[in-house]
Write a structure and sequence with these properties.
Strand content: 5-15%
Shape: globular
Structural class: alpha/beta
Distance between the termini: 35 Å
Number of domains: 1
Order of helices and strands: EHHHHEEHHHHEEHHH
Strand order of the largest sheet: 1-4-3
CATH architecture: Alpha-Beta Complex
Oligomer: single chain
CATH superfamily: Nitrile hydratase alpha /Thiocyanate hydrolase gamma
Number of helices: 11
CATH class: Alpha Beta
Helix content: 40-55%
CATH topology: Nitrile Hydratase, Chain A
Number of strands: 5
Largest sheet: 3 strands, parallel
Length: 213
């Protein structure tokens, strides 16, 4: 069973389709000029972007998840007021002020998408991956979420339903993945190492302890 949830209307979005916004176009033009003048190396920029997209950025969210796994009171706070709970850890800022945490369970797997553009909680998850902003993901995540998950290598049990959450300019989501088995003795920093960016979007699962090594 698949359900589709959307809180609030889409407006004041940052991007539409795959076109550059005015700011993106200006940045791209500046990058081109600086590259042509030999002042910057595009490969270096790509490396920096990759670092913020996959390494530094998602660490904030991973610590939120690890704390929720470890501290029931924090998990309850996160369920009731994710914005305040996340802000208590110092993770606030652009596109992360209004948050909702959705918890994966044995019965329900959560998946986040922004169907009209690419609203994303930068301060918690870092830079959005390219595929998150692409039209195929934005449309198919709603129409065929189970098929999309399979393409990411995630095969869910037959009876586990998928709930799709549609991010808006007013409200963004973080998925709290299920805690892997065999992690009872791990501290929060070790637990955070098991949390991937994709698991906080819903296109992945938390790593097992073997994968985290």
């Amino acid at each position: 069973m698949t359900s589709h949830s959307s809180d609030g209307d889409h407006h004041d979005h940052d991007h539409h389709d795959n076109h550059f916004s005015e700011m993106q176009a200006r940045v791209k033009a500046l990058e081109t000029v600086l590259t042509q003048k030999g002042l910057i190396d595009p490969a270096a920029i790509d490396a920096i972007v990759d670092t913020y997209e996959t390494k530094i950025g998602p660490r904030n969210g991973a610590r939120v998840v690890a704390k929720a796994w470890s501290e029931p009171d924090f998990a309850d706070w996160l369920r009731n007021d994710a914005t305040a709970a996340i802000a208590s850890l110092g993770y606030t800022g652009r596109q992360g002020e209004h948050m909702r945490a959705v918890f994966n369970t044995a019965e329900t797997h959560n998946l986040v998408v922004c169907t009209l553009c690419s609203c994303y909680p930068w301060s918690v998850l870092g830079l959005p991956p390219v595929w998150y902003k692409a039209p195929p993901y934005r449309s198919r995540a709603v129409i065929d979420p189970r098929g999309v998950l399979a393409e990411f290598g995630v095969t869910l049990p037959e009876g586990q339903k998928i709930r799709v959450w549609d991010s808006t300019a007013e409200l963004r989501y973080i998925v709290i993945p299920e805690r892997p088995a065999g992690t009872d003795g791990l501290d929060q920093e070790a637990l955070a190492d098991l949390v991937t960016r994709d698991s906080m979007i819903g296109t992945g699962l938390a790593r097992s302890t073997e994968e985290g090594r």
